[in-house]
Amino acid sequence: MKTAAAIVVGSLAAAASALSPVTVKGNAFFAGSKRFYVRGVDYQPGGDAAGKDPIADVTGCKRDVAEFKKLGINTVRVYTVDNTANHDECMSMLADAGIYLALDVNNKAYSINRAEPKQSYNDVYLQSVFATIDAFQKYDNTLLFFSGNEVINDNTTTGAAPYVKATTRDMRQYIGSRNYRKIPVGYSAADVEENRYEMATYMNCGTADERSDFFAFNDYSWCDPSSYTQSGWNAKVAQYGNYSIPLFLSEYGCIKGVRKFEEVAALYGPQMTPVYSGGLVYEYSQEASNYGLVEVSGDSSSVKERPDFDALQSALEKTPAPSGDGGYKSSGEPSTCPPQSDTWDVSNDDLPAIPSPALKYMQDGAGKGPGLTGPGSQDAGVESSGTATAGSGAVTATSSHSGAAGILAPDFSMAPFACALVLLASTFLGAATML
């Protein structure tokens, strides 16, 4: 017999599944048969320095969801969550308000270090990433996962790109191997003009098991007063015109004087919807960077709406989500991988293989995550030391310290017979070291 508490928790989880899950079709998102545009804000009260999980803060959720409804948004992006916390109540409140979650799986302690990407791409890191997927895959209003945010932030850090792409691949395989709903996985790129397009094409090139489900980038080039052409947005639409996976702005809202959010009309207008799927305004709460839509009171019980809040609310009201399919492309070819250059230091298309100790998570699950108080991963675990076999839905493991090599990670979305062959091969190649 279920206890009253269990019934309440079950009801909350069911409520968080009231929205239609979002899927990818061609270069667009769809909720059921209706095209879905990201119309939201970036949401991290306290900022990155605080390192808190806003989706575990029920009081804060009640306060802020009311503001989200006033804005008329359908998505919030959260940069930090605790993968050991309970998120049922906040996710239910968001779902009841018609709001999806775009979630970063990394935090300060568990992430790819752009200065030491090979060392920081290890099994301890992936365990935390996979545990975060476990915590949020059950909610239908989990819109997507970001595998990284601004890891490449100039011309000297592009060498980290293969590790970002490998993490994206591993997340997609973990979702498939665990038989979860196919939640889209992709990357959020920095506002770096010199290599942003290279990163976009890199994340969309290669075989089906290597490519991302979407690509997003932060764009602060439209500074009011401006226009579609003055901002250069027209040139970007032309540049990405043949891009074949969903593309959206993971941060936008330049501050140079007063923000009127005039770019909203362009972003959801007929010139951009064939290529873009909306965007997220930076940011909800006022932090040191001065981009806030609201100020959270000292006792955290209420908020004060700033002029930017009114401006965004008005802009969204004047520009509703487009009807129809927005001219999306139903199919498309992969991008061509970018050549090595002065601004792109990736010499070939090979990806790092998954660290062999992480292979067990594909079959057994990640287990309990480290939360936000764990010792961190950047100098821990077995790092990658090989390249992956692409195209079969499986990834080849790196050597562990005990010497095992060449272990295949089964993709449980394959046909049962093929999957059985991979599992059998894994046994003979040293699968015991995975356990």
From TrEMBL:
Chief location of this protein within or outside the cell: membrane
UniProt signal peptide: 1-18
One Gene Ontology CC term in the entry: plasma membrane
Role summary: Splits internally a 1,3-beta-glucan molecule and transfers the newly generated reducing end (the donor) to the non-reducing end of another 1,3-beta-glucan molecule (the acceptor) forming a 1,3-beta linkage, resulting in the elongation of 1,3-beta-glucan chains in the cell wall.
Enzyme Commission designation: 2.4.1.-
Keywords linked to the UniProt accession: Glycoprotein, GPI-anchor, Lipoprotein, Membrane, Signal, Transferase
Protein name per Swiss-Prot or TrEMBL: 1,3-beta-glucanosyltransferase
Region (Disordered): 317-396
Low complexity: compositionally biased ranges: 380-396
InterPro entries: GH, Glucanosyltransferase
Enzyme class: transferase
Membrane topology: Lipid-anchor; GPI-anchor
Molecular function terms from GO: 1,3-beta-glucanosyltransferase activity
Skewed-composition ranges (Polar residues): 332-346
Similarity annotation: Belongs to the glycosyl hydrolase 72 family.
Localization per record: Cell membrane
Superkingdom of the source species: Eukaryota
GO terms (BP aspect): fungal-type cell wall (1->3)-beta-D-glucan biosynthetic process; fungal-type cell wall organization
